[in-house]
Every structure is written in C-alpha cells, then in structure tokens.
Write a structure and sequence with these properties.
Elements: E1 15-16, H1 19-29, E2 36-42, E3 48-53, E4 67-69, H2 72-83, H3 86-96, H4 98-118, H5 137-147, H6 153-161
Antiparallel strand pairs: 1-2, 2-3, 3-4
Helix pairs in contact: 3-4, 5-6
InterPro entries: DUF501
Region (Disordered): 1-20
Pfam family, one: DUF501
Amino acid sequence: MKDRSRPSPGERVREPITPEERAVVARQLGRPPRAVRAVAHRCPCGQPDVVQTSPRLEDGTPFPTLYYLTCPRASAAASRLESAGRMREWQADLGTDAGLATAYRAAHEAYLAERDALGELPTRATAGGMPDRVKCLHALAGHALAAGPGVNPVGDRAVAEMGEWWAQGPCAPPEGEPT
C-alpha cells in the first residue's frame, strides 16, 4: 500500500473526495464543505487535512482559495504561529531575502496556474497574501502540503514549525466514536 501521508517532492495528490471523506471534512470544519473537488493532502493519520476547492462556490461566487486546510489541529497549529508573530517575521524576510521573495512569487504563479486550469477568476489574488505579503499561514500551509516541499517557501516554513498536529490520532474519528 502506498504511503499517502505526504507527497514526495513534486508529487501531487489529487484524489476525488468520497462521501465518507466529505463527512470527515464536515466534522473537521463543523459545517458542510463548499466547492470541494478533491483531497489534496492526507494527514499521516490517513484523513484529509487539505482539500482542493473549485475557483467558484456552487452559487458562482468567486473563491480564490484553491487549497483549504481542514484539520482543526493543523489549523490550530497555524493559528499559534500567527499569534506568535511569525507572519510579521516572514514578511520582513521577504523584504531582505531576494531568493525567498523570488521563490514566493513563483509559488504565487504556480498557484494561479493550477487554479486557472480549473476555472479563471476576475482576480490575480491567490491566498495567504502571495505574491508579496504574508497574510494567512493556514492558506500557505495548505498550499505547501498540497504542492509538496519546495514549492511554497513560506508555507514550508509554517508546516515545519506547526509540529506533529496528527500525533494524537485522527482529529475527526468516524461518526459515533469519541473524539
């Protein structure tokens, strides 16, 4: 059986979401997921932790977030980094590290290309502040997990510092089982 926990560098995980996985994501989010196309990354526990969404919601509203971090533990870890001021620090790094800024802009362009392949939006906005701001570590971590290491340098930093959010087991056990 293939290890589906984290893609190898460059490997893209795009598995159509099953009804069971959609139910897991709904329990993770505390609401029905919207515009979900596929599972984009799996937590080491085996459950989805990032989903790929359509560029538009079911009602046609633009939705520029292509990769959505669904695991509440991963989301809490990203929130802790934001509260600790990592966004400000990494924003400052973009201003002083030309290589980081270039790689971050390339991540933005890759994100746009993937999203535009699914349907164009009337905006060049992506997620997380790309290409020149660090605005949402949840979005950047989701992109880094979905795209694999080396694509989004700020997202990779966030994932590296989020710790092992999965260590306590599945965040959304099957219905009827205690959390």
